[in-house]
Design a protein that fits this description.
Layout (H helix, E strand, L loop, with lengths): L13 H20 L3 E2 L5 E3 H4 L4 H6 L3 E2 L15 E2 L2 E2 L1 H8 L2 E3 L4 H10 L8 E10 L11 E10 L4 H17 L4 E7 H10 L6 H8 L2 H4 L1 H10 L4 H11 L5 H12 L10 H17 L7 E4 L13 E7 L8 E6 L13 E7 H10 L13 E3 L4 H16 L4 E3 L6 H10 L4 E3 L3 H6 L1 E6 L5 E5 L3 H9 L2
Parallel strand pairs: 1-7, 9-10, 14-15, 14-16
Antiparallel strand pairs: 2-6, 3-6, 4-5, 7-8, 8-13, 9-11, 11-12, 12-13, 16-17, 17-18
Helix pairs in contact: 1-6, 1-14, 6-13, 7-13, 8-10, 10-11, 12-13
Amino acid sequence: MKASIPKGTRDFGPSEMAERNYIFETIRSVYKSYGYQQIETPAIENLSTLLGKYGDEGDKLLFRILNSGDPFSKIQLEDFKKDEAYNAESLSRAICDRGLRYDLTVPFARFVVQHQNEIVFPFKRYQIQTVWRADRPQKGRYREFYQCDADVIGSKSLINEVELVQIIDKVFNLLDINVAIKINNRKILSALAEITDSKDKLIDITVAIDKLEKIGLDAVKTELQNKGLSNEAISTLEPILTLSGSNEEKLKTMYELMNGNNSLNKTSDIGLEGINELKSLFSLISQSNIRNTVEIDLSLARGLNYYTGAIFEVKALDFEIGSICGGGRYDNLTGLYGLEGLSGVGISFGADRIYDVLKGLNKFPKDLHSSTSLLFANIDDEAISYLLPVVSELRNAGVNCEIYPDKNKIKKQFDYAEKKSIPFISIIGSNEISSNIINIKNLNSGIQESFAKEDISSIIHFLLNK
């Protein structure tokens, strides 16, 4: 049998894990600096928790888990036939009660409702875990991948949105990735459905708009037409999809459109509310020392049903890939589980795509690939006994070191150090033991020094100043 893994998943060796942990630790450090606390939720959720939260397309991408035992024992397959074919959705619900989580936000809302008496509101949480989607694998799109979420729930203040933009900016500055932070407001998208007499097609409109960059304007217009929008309605939407200029110019054009200057002469109060929120948000952002580009993108839709206010998406400027971070405001996600009136806002970093960007741009730090700073060579048993207390003290002091386990040729031990990118090696023989010293060689510079066996602080100083 050929060894393999499912399409859309990946193995990660020690080198890749060092690079991935660099991403996770960078994001985690920034989250913590803004007062976010870590939680975790199960990989498996009840399907009743997940279904209906991501739209029809999202529901189709849920990995479902067969009920334990014989899930078919209590059902009649004939009951699920329709026009000589099985109704796959109904059958799936009959034999599957659980599924793998699709994202971290919906499980977070469930967590908040279940633990509402244990947490302090507004609650700022971060979560770094795997999610799964039954998607078609392609470049930058996987079936199993990590998300790195931060959400604050229990506050409607725009300060939360501003802080999330600052977090995005800080993380990508630390990772040395140039990005564009794109912002829209879901209320404006709702207004577009309103002023085109298409309120019942809000989801169709947002899903189509969300594909604009991927499939182009003409294809989006065709999709809208296929969903039943009139030519007049599509003509009203087109200036939004092709809007350009500064953020201020975009807001001015949108204000006029929402205030009746459109082909149907309709106004939209919710659209004006969304525009005012964007104005306030960008006013705060302008005072926040953001280094990366922040721009209004009115074609940005983010096709998740639960967003109600500001929505975010981040694109790398120097590497071709999909969005590497996104999120938005949701006003009543916890209401789906019985806790009404809690507004939240959050973002999610796509760690796997960020990994691909850093790899493609060769921007991982060069010293990530060794977890070991110092290798002690193994040349005789007496030396090992001599070294063990030194190794123990160094490890207690925070130095990552190891003893080569086998008495092989010294060249093989040097090769081992080179392949693992270990920067220092120590070779102890009878002369060093009789003199009570430790010899350490810097394999990069070739410099070698000797230290008294008890002088741990000097050894550490030498290792740190490589």
